[in-house]
Each structure stands twice: as structure tokens, then as C-alpha cells.
Amino acid sequence: xxxxxxRSKAAAAGADRQPVPKPPKSGxxxxxxxxxxxxxAVENLVPSNESRPGKLPVSAANVQPVGTVAVPSDPSPPPIxxxxxxxxxxxxxxxxLTKADTRFQDVFATVVCTPYQKLDRxxxxxxxxxxxxGQQISWMAARSICHRFVRLYNSSMPEKPTEESxxxxxxxxxxxxxxxxxxxxxxATLRTAGLSARKAEYVQDLAAHFADGRLSTEKLLAAKDxxxxxxxxxxxxxGRVTVDMFAIFSLRRSNILPVGDxxxxxxxxxxxxxxxxxxxxxxxxxxxxxxxxxxxxxKKGKKIVPNEANGGMEGGDDSDNNDTGISGSGDPxxxxxxxxxxxxxxxxxxxxxxxxxxxxxxxxxGLSVATLKSRLSGKKVKGALLTPSEMEELTETWKPYRSLxxxxxxxxxxxxx
Length: 417
Known about the structure:
Structural class: mainly alpha
Strand order of the largest sheet: 1-2
Protein name: DNA glycosylase
Low-confidence stretches: 26-68, 281-320, 322-337
CATH superfamily: Hypothetical protein, domain 2
Largest sheet: 2 strands, antiparallel
Number of domains: 1
Number of strands: 2
Mean pLDDT: 73
């Protein structure tokens, strides 16, 4: 066969080429050995710390595999806890409120004020973290996410939450990841526990504040009320209502008034309406547990998920510093004391007008019996039953023990007209 010019060029080019070695055959086409993928997988799971302030260095020495992910081990010392002590006299507080309104005497005899009478130690990071995890979702979903979140760092936990595992998590001595562990875990890994991207960012921001010392148990205990608000609302995902609940249930502050909570607003409306109107009959709900009504969305297409722990009173989006419902009361791990049960018979008479040791306080300007009735029936002002200034004035005689009175307003809030 004659050799053409093109064939001669191809032959010359081929002489310079080196043969490409074929990969060794394996039992299955395309199969890769475990040794070839372990290191790249670990590198992909361990977050980079250069772009995030406050992160601790992560290396192979302080990373331990858990399930299918890798999370930082815990080099930090045990957390400092809020002691199981009440910073004020509970008996003096009861006497003070009873003098202001004798109806409190019946309430004290009926409902135990759990956060101030059944004291336990509190770990602030754990409490705030689980509060964020439980925001704006049902208590069942919150329980599952909290369990999966903790299991990222403790593979000995069962795969799914059980009554036993959740009961164990309620103890402050039970395992919970440290701020250093959480701040060193990347967003993708946190999301495997069921967190939204935004909640994962919130939890990491909270962890960063504790890891770098901007927040600590000592600082939270020493801070005055306004300083506490400033410190905690600097964390993404924590707003004023969450701070109020933390101050009442965890730090046991005595003079906190959560002006943004609809449950407290409703309780105050009923409490003072019954005081000023003997023609306004009020019955109190029974022991039977109510099924919370599903709230209607204000805008079409916006989903509002009722939270069983807060009675489905409120809902909202997942924006920064946005609080919904009785924040913290639906904590899936039980680190925040739940709100009290509804007042039950035979205390129906509590809300009826009865002689007081002093004249009842007048209603604030702009409030009347008719106004309170209309607001309870749905005609709110600026999205609330009461404005902050109205709440301040209505509870003026409760100072300096507003927190104690507020606790019982959640019981009163379940009363029906």
C-alpha cells in the first residue's frame, strides 16, 4: 500500500507519544478503594476557619467522626452554671403582690410558680441554643431537631428520640455540645440535623459569642436588665421576647415585663376587665388539655406553624431577631421551665370582682371596659392587645415583682369569655 503524506505525518507524530498506562483492573468496573477517598472526605467535612471570625482551628487531631460527618472534639472546660438560687425573697414577693391585688392570694394557693419555687441549675448556652432550635416550629419537630443536633456530637444516642433519651436530656448534667464544638462545625453539617440554613447561622453566631467571651454565665448574671438586652440581642435570631423569657425562666429576674408577648397581653386584659366590670362574666378553662387552634396567616401563602407549647398564639417568619410566641417555653430539651397550666375550677371566682385592700388601679388613658372587650374580640391596636405603655401602667403596682405576676397571666390567658 502506498504511503501517503498524511499517513507519514501521523506515523511521525505517533513516534513521539508515550503509551498511557491503563489503570489496574478491579473486581467491579469503576470501583475505588476506601483508602483513596477517606482523606478527601474528611477535608470536605472540616470547615475552613480563615473566613469566619471567632472560630477555633480545626485539625485532624481535634476532629472525631460521628456517623457520616466529622465534628470538632471538645477542648473546653465544663460550663459554669447559673446556681439553683432565687435572687429575691419569694415570700416577700407574694406579700407585695397580694397587698396590691388580693386576688393574687387565691392564685398563689392554686398554681405553683415553677421557675421560682422549683429551682434547678441552668446552663445559658444550652438554654439559648435549644430555644433557637425550637423557634417557629411545632414541639414535636423541635424535639426531633434538638435530638439530632446533639447526636451530631454524641453518637451513643439512639438514632431517633425516645422518651428515655428526651428525659435524660432534660438534666443539666446531660451531654450537650460546647460553644467551641458548635462554632467549629460547618453549616452543611449542622443542616444534616434538620436545621434551616438560617437557624444554623443563628446557632453558630450564638456559639461564637460564647466561645470568644462576648457572652458568659458570669457576664449574664452580672448584667443589668438593659445591659442583658443589649448583650443578647446582638446575637442573630435572638429578639426581645426571647431575652425576656430567658431573664424570667433562667436568670429568675424579678421585674421583667415581656411587652411583646400576646399571652401576657391577653391575661392582663382579662385580669383588669374582670376587675372593672362585674357584668363581664369570665369562666376559666378546665383541666382538660386544649387542642390549640391553627392560626390563620395574615398573608396568602405565608405559612404560620402553631406551637403546642405556646398554645398556637403566634407565628412568624425566620428573620433575624424575630420572636414568636412564648419564646423558650417550648424548649424541646426542657432547659426552660414551661409556662403554667391554665387556672382550673374551683378558682373560677378568682377573676370576679372582690373587695381589695385598696382601691383598684384605674385604667390607662384610652382604655375602657368597652375598649378591652373590643380588643379581646379581635380589634387589636398595632397588632397587639395592649401597647407597651399600657402594659407598663397596668402593672405599675406590681413593681418590683412584675415577673411573678406575669407568670400567672399566662394562666389567666386561657380563660374564656
